[in-house]
Design brief:
Distance between the termini: 21 Å
Structural class: mainly alpha
Number of helices: 6
Mean pLDDT: 76
Number of domains: 2
Helix content: over 70%
Radius of gyration: 18 Å
Low-confidence stretches: 171-180
Number of strands: 0
Length: 180
Amino acid sequence: MKLHVWSALLVCVVASEVRLALAAQLAAVISVVLVLGAEGMNSALEALVDLHTAERREEARRVKDAAAGAVLAVAAGAVVVGGFVVSESWEGGLRRLDQLRANSLWDSAIVVLAASLLALGGRRVAWQVVAAGCGAVLLAILAARTVSLPFTALAGALFLLAAASGRYARLDGQPSAGAP
């Protein structure tokens, strides 16, 4: 799930910097939402299977594999949609580098890194504050200069989701990945 959130966040930050046709914007947003929804359903189904049986059973493995395969299929479809969006938008403006701010790719990388630190940062409050501050500042700059406010808003929501996922894991009593 975290990989999909980070990927979607990166897509949204970059898409905030590029003028896309309305159909391309809708296709990208729907793809992001479908992948995250499929991953959420996969996580819920895996938790339900784990709740039903603690022992290793072939039936449980098949259910989990089928759910993971569905997520893979939706994610592959999102990549194909992304390819169509890029190819259809290339002549319409993506090729012109003046549409991108010079530092937009760095901004994207830093926002994703900040989200990663929030989700994986362990119990160190200082890391959480620095990561949240950096991400919030970059998202505010992005919102002030964006060419696509819906993508910026979605990037902000995904950033909050990454922060909440790290916080939830710590509140749940289980250390998040990377925690000491």
